[in-house]
Amino acid sequence: MHKDKRIRKWLMGISLICLSLLSVGCSQNNKNEIQEEALTEITIPASFLQFTGNDVQESAQGYEAYCTDAQISGEDVVLQVTEQEKADLIKMNQDYIDDALADFTAENPQYSYELKEDFSRVTYRFDENIDPTVMASLLMGVTSMTVLNGIIENNESDWSIEVIIENCHTNKIVAEGTLPQDTIAFGESEWQQSYE
Fold first, then answer.
1. What residues contact 171, with CB distance under 8 A and at least 6 apart?
2. Is residue 57 within 8 Å of 22, Cβ to Cβ?
3. What burial class does residue 81 get, using C-beta atoms within 10 Å of its C-beta: 0-12 exposed, 13-18 middle, 19+ buried?
4. What pLDDT, on the 0 to 100 scale, is given for residue 38?
5. Which residues contact 37 (CB under 8 A, 6 or more apart)?
6. Are 107 and 124 spatial neighbours (Cβ–Cβ below 8 Å)?
7. What's this model's pTM, rounded to 2 decimal places?
8. Which residues, 6+ apart, have CB-to-CB distance to 30 below 8 Å?
9. 3-class DSSP state for residue 62?
10. pLDDT for 29-44, tens place per residue?
11. Among residues 124, 120, 126, which one has the least CA distance to residue 162?
12. What is the secondary structure of 123-161 as a DSSP string?
């Protein structure tokens, strides 16, 4: 009888340990599910990497420092990000945009810009005397970072952006087009026409 009670206690003890291990396992599974649910998959498409002249392998490796995971899928880079990582990526890109635009407007008080909130259009107003480095930073850097923030923010890899360049003295269009389909090219004759 005495031995029977000890066996029953021992069996109850084992049962309780098993139940507690199961509950730990379940809560761990729930944590994993919550963690998986909290991750967002964002595709940086090959069209964007080609537009910016970035290698797919180097891009994936570069993102590893900022994302939970970065993998190559065909010619695309697929990111796995938490909400915080997503917000940090957008902020990092926005910091670059803000710095480049500050340099741009510091060059001439008549220079200005307009970035559409939905990432679909950028308008730059300057003249033919702009520093070529500032112009390159604007047209390639700001434009591509705006596109990238649109891809990340909206989780939309099918991207395009309208780019308009206006003469800041006349408000006439010097060049315009929609990237990546169009090529935006302008030179002396386009500037001349924008003064007429």
1. 125
2. no
3. buried
4. 85
5. none
6. no
7. 0.79
8. none
9. helix
10. 433 444 455 899 999 9
11. 120
12. EEEE-TTS-HHHHHIIIIIIHHHHHHHHHHHHT--S--E
C-alpha to C-alpha distances, 188 to 80, 111, 167, nearest whole angstrom: 46, 19, 12
Return the structure tokens found at 115.
Answer: 């970035």
- Torsion angle of alpha carbons 95, 99, 105, 111, nearest 10°? -60
Closest CA to 45 of 3, 79, 89, 83: 79
Q: Tokens 């741009």 appear where?
A: 104
* 144 contacts 51 by C-beta, under 8 angstroms: yes
What is the number of other CB atoms lying within 10 angstroms of the CB of residue 128?
Answer: 16
Question: Dihedrals φ, ψ of 102, to 5°?
Answer: -65, -40
Tokens of 177: 């087009």
Amino acid identity, position 111: Y
- 18: CB partners within 8 A, 6+ apart: none
Q: Which two tokens stand for residue 15?
A: 């049962």
Q: Is 119 left (phi over 0), alpha (psi -120 to 50) or beta?
A: left
Task: Give whole-number Cα distances, 27 to 19, 39, 47, in Å.
Answer: 12, 18, 42
Phi/psi for 163 (5° steps) reads -120, 125
**Which residue bears the tokens 């080609």?**
50
**pLDDT at residue 22 tops 50:** no
